[in-house]
Design brief:
Elements (H helix, E strand, L loop, with lengths): L23 H29 L9
């Protein structure tokens, strides 16, 4: 019984089929969605910080 030969020219590791990798278009969509979420979180944090760091000192002169 002969052993199964495997291609180890790329070294040891886990390799996936080319169909498992997303293309450039999907990668750009993922990048845009991630950026929109980060910008949205920045706006939410900035809006909430207005209430947390509100200036309570009032001049009554």
């Amino acid at each position: 019984m002969s052993a199964v030969q495997r291609d180890r020219s790329l070294g040891e590791g886990v390799y996936f089929a080319p169909a498992d990798y997303v293309g450039l278009r999907r990668r750009l969509v993922i990048f845009v969605v991630d950026g929109a979420v980060l910008v949205g979180l920045m706006f939410v944090i900035a809006f909430l910080s207005l209430f947390v760091f509100e200036d309570y000192s009032e001049d009554s002169s």
